[in-house]
Amino acid sequence: MKSLKWLATASVLALSVCAAPAFADVSIEDIVNDAKTTNDVVTAGLGGQAQRYSPLKSVNKDNVGGLVPAWAMSLGGEKMRGQESQPLVKDGVMYITGSYSRIWAIDVKTGRELWQYDHRLPEGILPCCDVVNRGAALVGKTVVFGTLDAKLVSLDQKTGKVVWTKEIDDFKGGYSYTASPLIVPSKAHGPLIVTGVSGGEFGIVGRVEARKAETGDLVWSRPTIEGHVGTLNGKPSTMTGDKVNASWPGDLWKTGGGATWLGGTYDSDTNLIFMGTGNPAPWNSHMRPGDNKWSCSRIALDPETGDIKWGYQTTPNDGWDFDGVNEVVAFDADGKKLAATADRNGFFYVLDRTNGKYVNATPFVEKITWAKEIGKDGRPVYNADNRPGDPKGSKDGKKGTEVFAIPSFLGGKNQQPMAYSPDTKLFYVPANEWGMNIHNEPVTYKKGAAYLGAGFTIKPTFEDHIGALKAIDPATGKIVWQNNNKAPLWGGVLTTGGGLVFYGTPEGELKAVDDATGKELWSFNTGSGVVAPPITWEQDGEQMVTVISGWGGAVPLWGGEVAKTVANLNQGGMVWTFKLPKKVAAK
Amino acid sequence: MNLHVTMQAIRAPMILSCALVCVASTLASARPLDDVVASKVLKVVAYDDNAPFSFAENGEVKGIDIDLGRAVAKELGVNAEFILRMPGEKVDDDLRVNVWKGPLTGGGVGDVMLHVPTDRELAMRNKEAVIGNPYFQETIALAIDPKRIAKGSTFAAFKTHKIGVKMATVSDYFLMTFEDGALINNVAHHVKGVAGAKEFLAGETAALMGVRSETEGLLHSLGSKAEFITPSMDGIVRTQWVIGTAVDEKSRDLGYAIGAAVTKFRETGELTRIFAKHGVTYLPPPGS
Description:
By secondary structure, chain A is mostly beta strands. Chain A is 4% helix and 38% strand. Chain A has four helices and 42 strands. In chain A, strand 15 (207-212) and strand 16 form a beta hairpin. The model of chain A is unreliable at 1-18 (pLDDT under 50). Chain B is built from nine helices and eleven strands. In chain B, the strands form two sheets. In chain B, strands 1, 4, 5, 6, 7, 8, 9, 10 and 11 form a nine-stranded mixed beta sheet that branches. In chain B, strands 2-3 form a two-stranded antiparallel ribbon. Chain B is elongated.
């Protein structure tokens, strides 16, 4: 009925009648069960737990070599730049976001555009790290995405018309939004849209917010820094942390940082939202002795209230810009409910996801310098001489001691999401081997005034590669296999029941490798760098694989030796969808 | 740095390479003097929310940069047009966005910025812009409540009195690390200058440390003024710097013409008048 009704008004769309998708509401059950349903992808991460695993196996180790493009669609215009978005698919329609806060609906059978919405961006906004967007969220009849001017926009799935727009924060204060919004169920409020904040000038406090999916009205807000009080239904709720100022000096907790810019994951088993938090402010760690909670941490939130159920800090008193924002992926092993995260700081952590208790942590990149190990208490054992020096202690009083720290502040892993296969019980982590010369530096200016900055120069750890896709056994931390890549890996990973791991490279390749050995079984040159996560789903009995290609993101903004590995990459902006030819699939 | 710039985030300050691997800009390019004169408009880019130098109030642009921009434009025989933009993480970013390359999201560059530190290292690493025409001395100073802080005080006074400071500035760093953290519990941080000025006027802090021009301007806008002291600041990374202008490297002749105008305003007392109108004491750069 719905599709018939819609067809009557579809004449404005360049769409043939026979290809008309049958739009149905995306229910909260669809969202919670996304990992189990193979005919759609309605969440970032192919399920709230974000394992990025699909049980589909019609494309497998034996036949993946025959994968060919089904269609491709250009993101067009002059607006190329980095494409970091994970597509979503529901009822024959694909929803993708692109650079410059754009979003499209595409007919998955033909690759034809159904609608496009270009968010009108104010002049002169200054996103820190390219004009990316990491994807949308589907809920009910709407598709929701965040914009570079820090708005949350809800659009009608059928028409691309705006249902509501809400401001996350004032873009004039340096805020933006680039993550995929997270949809979680709640008993009291119905489906909620959960977002963090990106950017903001020095001295903001990170927070997580939940809004009603239908109206965009704020339900709760949870500041990430100890001492700040959250809100619930417009009233003050609980305080973050046990007491004000337990781990900050003076009044710095008031302006402590901890931005939640990469979004979160949701585990329906424990009914918890997992969010990561960014670095503390100010940058110079010598000014803020103490742990500085909950900066550089993972926090678990109750969807009903926004209360923090547990927190785990990966880098207490951060001095290297090791944002703790990387995704928390829930998995089960030996009957235990666990979660893993591959931190910027180069350690791969396994936690008890019911209470945040530390289980183990092992290095997933080589030659880490800032800490010897993660101790039994879950705290890093620092190498004291690898903390950038306080300028005060230096001879000329101008530049603190320079140290060479591994990983670099871009991290052992950055925004590119990892995957977990319940078949192999391995995590597939898109890692980067690089370090940085870093020092606390006074000779910088902001807004025309002197201020305290930091100097960074990123250097590859090895001569022949920066990127390395690593298969990690979470029980032991052992790296079972790794595939090196010359340029840094910046796209995400997908793994399947067909025994495959898919990932893209800045050099432009989408690859499929054997999940047990890493052996390359297929690759396709997409024509521009891949910095986005692939997806797979089943369409009318055929397994499809999609990735968006378009070089950009933070890496090309950095010079030095890293630039050499990416200097000749061309920009682009293309959605590629693959499948097996019918003959090969039948083999 | 959402790198993070997180930065993203609150991104840590970063050094962006000049060798950006990006597509060539298709934005309006900066213009030499002849083009500016022919178009009858000088496009001045100034910071949004940077009182007393540039800010918008009820839709009207105001401030020292605005008055100076108008006076310079008049000297060149053209009209001034102002574009107020957000600051980047560092002035290096602002030069790229406002003077020689333009923002990623469109809008193009202006002809000149009038509030740029004339620092050699800054100039060296931003060769696409020409920084020059030094015309104003910035200093770090303390506005004090004389009832509580004596004129001859040292920083030891803030072991017993509160002092306000803007987050992550050189003053903040100095106060937080003074005698291994001896003042930490009396340092009151603010993010916006106006919040710090209000706390000072309300007596919540006995002193306000920061860039003297900003403090003077903010207090003036709140209908007040204060006494300033500059106690010995051993170990502070920077107590003063000089403000000048920046134009595109290809518009050097425009930079010279603006320099001639600014020099004239200094000699005629026009600069002193413009600064005084906004409550700021005009201090010429050393040696001029």
